[in-house]
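Issue: ligand-bound run for NAP - logging full I/O for the record.

Environment: standard queue, default settings, no custom constraints.

Inputs:
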Amino acid sequence: MHGSDGKVTEHLHVVTLQVQDNNPEDDEEEQETIYDLVRRYHRELKAEFIEEKEIEIVELNNGMVYPMIGLGTGGITGASQNSQIIKEAITKYDYIAIDSASHYESEPAIGALLKEDASLRSRLFLTSKVWPTDLYFQATLDSVQKTLTAMRVNHIDMYMIHWPSCYDHLKFVDCSRSKDGKWQQSYEALSKLYGEGIILSIGVSNWDEELMVQLLEEFPIKPQVVQNQMDLKTMDWDFKDYLNDLHIVLQAYSPFRGLAAGEDADYREWKKILSDLCDEIEQEQGIKVTPSQLSLRFLYENAIAVIPRSTKSQHLKENNDIFAFEFTNDHYVGLGGRDAEKEEL
Ligand SMILES: NC(=O)c1ccc[n+]([C@@H]2O[C@H](COP(=O)([O-])OP(=O)(O)OC[C@H]3O[C@@H](n4cnc5c(N)ncnc54)[C@H](OP(=O)(O)O)[C@@H]3O)[C@@H](O)[C@H]2O)c1
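Outputs:
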């Protein structure tokens, strides 16, 4: 583990990659299906790079490994900007997880990059998502197919349901012709593709406990990741604990959009706390840390995966470099960590 005090490993399945530990041959009781083999093969393909670059990963509930830090691409506009940022993140700053969606502009950029250098595929963990207007069985199958074509891949590491419903309040979506689409139809389609090894893991996004209870009652395959909006101000501890018990990874999207905008009083207060702690770390440890790095590290210390987005080289670099300083219990509590968690240390 990177310079932390061990809190993460204690209760949250974050692992340093040891492929042999998960070899099903160790357990003669377990029958490995062809798709388990596919997942294991992909894990092993990534292993060398992950180990060499000391990439922090979490083991998903289906045995796949998942990077704790990925690149968010929602909001990056235009083919050339997407291509340039994704290429830089992967080749210069060692990102291996890219968060895309059928609605974003990054899928073809990933495809173009893989066309240029097919060898990158084996190290990447690619995620995309089905848009709320496509919450039907066939539309979801079509969405996955379009993603595979755009990305120039024959399987994808994770596919998510972007929103559980086509809500009218989503001002950027026209839901008028897709009101009867149900996330269940979409999940059925994703389960089928999961069974065929075309998508290697399943995620759901903008989800809550009620929906998760329903999902687990209705489907035999549990998702591996929940991607929700989360930052220092909007921590949902109960849901995090609930998912943790199910060994489902919580991933924060928009981890600092509010901080970057910083318009309301609460965020201004967080910015001040972060900036004071950064000064303190610099004085005590002689290491320069930015508020963004500290925010991401706090989420990481709570075993929450993150997918920050940036269009700037310096930010891409620092967002995937958050372990150079020691993150103490005082920092943890100062940033809103729970007392109970503190006592466990
Ligand atoms: N599932 C969903 O419904 C959903 C919804 C929203 C987002 N997402 C995913 O989550 C990703 C991240 O969320 P987001 O794009 O909303 O917001 P975000 O990553 O929280 O914030 C992006 C903003 O932070 C700035 N920033 C990034 N790194 C910084 C740094 N080190 N220092 C200072 N400022 C920095 C960026 O500006 P610069 O470009 O100047 O660095 C940009 O203005 C998305 O790209 C997308 O992949 C998913």
